[in-house]
Amino acid sequence: MLDLPKICYTVSRITMSSPDFPMPTALSTVTLLVCTKGKCAKNRSEKTCQRLRELVDERGLDDVIEVKKCGCLGYCKDGPNVMIEETGKVLTDIAPKKAGRVIEKILSKMG
Ligand code: FES
């Protein structure tokens, strides 16, 4: 049985192409919550989660970025969805091949 965190944020949606990528530069650590339920699961969110974890490992970012599985984030038809826990913003349509872009965007916002 997975220990999934409860989501209790005011959630809003944002796309990867948004100029306002939801990452305040003051953050020194980030937690990514990957929905692994319902439609997200059907759209290979487990693979997205796995790829995010691989990239974090490969780049030695374990102290900076944590990747966790979570339940439904409310944007099911646009999944796989990934929430930046610290901001409550949800990145939609994060297919496994987009995992690298997520990591790069986060790192660029962290300075
Ligand atoms: S099933 Fe993933 S957001 Fe609802």
Explain the layout of strands and helices:
Blueprint: E1 12-14, E2 30-35, H1 38-42, H2 45-58, E3 65-70, E4 82-84, E5 89-91, H3 99-110
Parallel strand pairs: 1-5, 2-3
Antiparallel strand pairs: 2-4, 4-5
Helix pairs in contact: 2-3
This protein binds FE2/S2 (inorganic) cluster (FES).
Q: Note the gap between the termini.
A: 37 Å
Largest sheet: 5 strands, mixed
Strand order of the largest sheet: 1-5-4-2-3
Strand content: 15-25%
Could you tell me the mean pLDDT? 85
Question: Regions with pLDDT < 50 over 5+ consecutive residues?
Answer: 4-9
- Work out the number of β strands: 5
The CATH class turns out to be Alpha Beta
* Structural Rg: 13 Å
Structural class determined from secondary elements: alpha/beta
- Ligand roster: FE2/S2 (inorganic) cluster
Q: Give the SSE string.
A: EEHHEEEH
Q: Any idea of the CATH topology? A: Glutaredoxin
